[in-house]
Every structure is written in structure tokens, then in C-alpha cells.
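Lab notebook, bench 4. The sequencing result for the construct came back, and we need a structural model before the next group meeting so we can plan mutations. Quick request posted to the team channel:

Model the 3D structure of this chain.
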Amino acid sequence: MCTVSIFIKNNEVIITSNRDEQASRPLALAPKKENYNNKNILFPKDQKGGGTWFATDETGNVVVLLNGAFEQYIPEKIYRKSRGLIVMEIISHKNPIAFVEEIDLENIAPFTIIIWTNTQKLYEFIWDGLKKLIQILSKEKAHIYSSVTLYDEKARTLRKEWFESFIQKNKNLTPDLIRNFHTYTNKNDKENGLIINRDEKVKTYSVTQVIVNETITSMLHHDLLLKKQYYEEFKTIFS
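Done. Here's the predicted structure in C-alpha cell form:
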């Protein structure tokens, strides 16, 4: 949930997420389809919070989470609800954007959520602990996000430079190339590379990719700790 890239090209959306977590956190359950609020959702489940950092549905909506908003913050001892459950509430709503405009986020930890809707729009939804910011992002350019809770401004800028260099060198981007970027970029930099291992305390747990096109919505999940890959898909039913 700590590095996210978005590519949109030729009616195909490719969103890829690296999940960085405290080593003490339980492994996530492999992605599977579940009926949630009467809607079919595909997601890997966080065993601790019960929610997820990355979810898609059979109508082509996608929601992906990063911890933090604009800057580092001091966490409260107790929050009302896990941010992963907020992801589930958004993806399971008939109109995700109308829902985020109305949702009460009092006593919810700061976050950044990227939402791709089946209306072919890309949104950035930020909650800084006090107020919401919801804006439409350009579909004409690629985007990368690094969580402010783990990467300072210098590291985020450096990672953006790696990303831009990757795009320049690869004019015909494929899902495999994007996953390779998320897996192998600056692999010797265990602090700020795309796959981190900070003294066995904070690690990159997984790389997950969702692809939405005119026929299929799919999720490929690579569990780096178990060294296993999982694949699930929907036949996309645009509503």
C-alpha cells in the first residue's frame, strides 16, 4: 500500500501496488472474490484489519490505498476504523465518488486513495485527518505515489525520477514491464528502492497488479514472502 503506479493507454488501465508493512503484521490472505454489500469484489484481505489496500469489482471500478496524506503525522492510539475497511466501503458502493463525498471520516487515520471508476475517470482522494480533497487526475499521463509515512520528500522525488526514466526508456509499456519496475528498480537500495527491507523491521510484502480492459478485470498478486503468485479475474460487466 506504499507505492502505487497508474498507466492508462488504449482503453486499458494498469494499476500496480507494492505493499510495505511492519514485519510483525500477519501476511495477507490471497486475493479471492467475495460478495460484499451485495457486490462481487476481488481483493487480498488484511488479516489484522479485515479490509484491504487494493480492490476491484466486476464492473471495472478499482480502489487502492496508501497510508498518509501530505506529510508524516503522529498516529492516535486508537482509530474508529481501519483504512482498509474504508477501501471496502468505497469499492462496494454503487457510486464510489458520491460515497466518498459523503463519508464521515472522523477519527480515521490520514490516507491517500486512488479510484478508477467505470465512468472512465481517475480520482485522487486524500484525507489528512481534518478535511477531504477529491480531484480528477489526468488520464493522459502516468502517475506514481509513494507513501509519506515511509518515504520522505527526498525519497519520493528520487522514486519519481526513476519512474519517469523508466517511462522514457519503455515507449511500449506492458503489464510485465511495469511489474518489473515495481520489483527490480534499485533493488540494492533496501531503504528506498521499490522493494525494501529495513533491518527486517519494515518490508515489502507483495506486488499486486490490476488490469481493466473492455473484456476482463484481472488481479495478479505476488506474495514476496511466501514466493507465490495468485491470479483471479472477472469478465468485466460495465454498469
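Helices lie at 83-91, 96-102, 153-169, 175-184.
Will bring this to the meeting.
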